[in-house]
Design a protein that fits this description.
The chain is mainly α. It is built from 15 helices and two strands. A two-stranded antiparallel sheet has the order 1-2. The radius of gyration is 21 Å and the shape is globular. The two termini are about 40 Å apart. About 45% of the residues are buried. It binds protoporphyrin IX containing FE (HEM). Protoporphyrin IX containing FE (HEM) binds next to helix 4, helix 9 and strand 1. Its EC number is 1.11.1.7. Keywords: Calcium, Disulfide bond, Glycoprotein, Heme, Hydrogen peroxide, Iron, Metal-binding, Oxidoreductase, Peroxidase, Secreted, Signal. This is Peroxidase.
Length: about 325
């Protein structure tokens, strides 16, 4: 290459990184963004996760959920990671998150390592997206390319965290409308709910189903009998609210399609899981059955829907920042 050619190549790299090509699929994000500016990024994320998940296999689930709870509140901008400050309340203290979200220390460790190797380059929002993908892969699930280039918010939204994140006792209509508001379809809802193939829920999240499903002091009739009895011993009528139970009792740390099979057998843990099948929406019902039958179909749609969720309102302007510490604005 001539020296002019080299200069042109260098300039095009710089311009491309500063103004990533906008594509409707990727919402202005670009999978190879850190190829030159931080080629070790993927490796660093993966190596921290391998250790964290080997120590605590549930961590994969917790990190997948963090990305979801980030994206549903003012977009995938790492607002979920901000500690409370004099300027705003933390999303961490909102009802769906408090005493429930985990994994913040693992994100801190990834960020600290990235700042050492390529300072001020990889955003906290991108770390969340990569950690979610790698957690799924390390649990035996599908791989997908993660579009990158999200920047980090300078504020959090406590109120929206309470409003936008679906509650475990949601009806099918609630779920569909909360997902639609984020630009996600019924297909995305069912596939992404399959994230519940890993991880745990607290008794308080499913107690209503065991003792008072319809304000009638009766259990949810869709619960299979032996499963219902086992849940009652983990989750008594009073107290035990923070006792935990697997969302996929068949294979709680393996990313597979067992979650959908369990739904067909009356062994889904949350009301929001059960209503995908019993909520009288033909489309979601059919999708549950298809994913229970064909794991490959579920994996394909899950990967597609994760990219779509990861593209919710990313910040891509230079005025938005790349935090040095994911817990506070610079
Ligand atoms: C469809 C609406 C959804 C509802 C109502 C819902 C609700 C919940 C609830 C209540 C818990 C247990 C929290 C606790 O008791 O501490 C939970 C856990 C979890 N959720 Fe969801 N969720 C939904 C969608 C999703 C999506 C889209 C994903 C990811 C793609 C996801 C991934 C997870 C994971 C992995 C866990 C386990 C976390 C852990 O073990 O730390 N959820 N969810």
């Amino acid at each position: 290459m001539t020296s002019l050619g080299l200069v042109m190549f260098f300039l095009s790299c710089v311009i491309f990184q500063a103004f990533p090509v906008s594509s409707s699929n990727y919402a202005g994000l670009f999978p190879d963004l850190y190829q030159f500016s931080c080629p070790q990024a993927n490796e660093i994320v993966m190596s921290v996760l391998e250790e964290a998940i080997a120590k605590d296999p549930r961590m994969a689930a917790s990190l997948l959920r963090l990305h979801f709870h980030d994206c549903f509140v003012q977009g995938c901008d790492a607002s979920i990671l901000l500690d409370k400050s004099s300027a705003f309340k933390s999303e961490k203290d909102a009802v769906p998150n408090k005493n429930s979200l985990r994994g913040f220390e693992v994100i801190d460790e990834i960020k600290a390592k990235l700042e050492q190797v390529c300072p001020h380059t990889v955003s906290c929002a991108d770390i969340l997206a990569l950690a979610a993908r790698d957690s799924v892969v390390l649990s035996g699930g599908p791989y997908w390319e993660v579009p990158l280039g999200r920047r980090d918010s300078k504020t959090a939204n406590f109120k929206k965290a309470n409003i936008n994140i679906p509650a475990p006792n949601s009806t099918i209509q609630n779920l569909i409308s909360l997902f639609n508001r984020q630009g996600l379809t019924e297909e995305d809802l069912v596939a992404l709910s399959g994230g519940h193939t890993i991880g745990m829920a607290r008794c308080v999240s499913f107690k209503q189903r065991l003792y008072n499903q319809n304000r009638d002091n009766l259990p949810d009739a869709t619960l299979e009998k032996t499963y219902y009895n086992a849940l009652k011993s983990v989750c008594p009528t009073s107290g035990g609210d923070s006792n935990i139970s697997p969302l996929d009792v068949g294979s709680p740390v393996r990313f597979d399609n067992t979650y959908f099979k369990l739904l067909l057998w009356g062994k889904g843990l949350l009301n929001s899981d059960e209503v995908l099948l019993s909520g009288n929406v033909k489309k979601t019902k059919e999708l549950v059955k298809s994913y229970a039958e064909k794991e490959a179909l579920f994996f394909h749609q899950f990967a597609k829907s994760m990219v779509k969720m990861g593209n919710i309102s990313p910040l891509t302007e230079l005025k938005d920042e790349i935090r040095k510490n994911c817990r506070r604005v610079n």
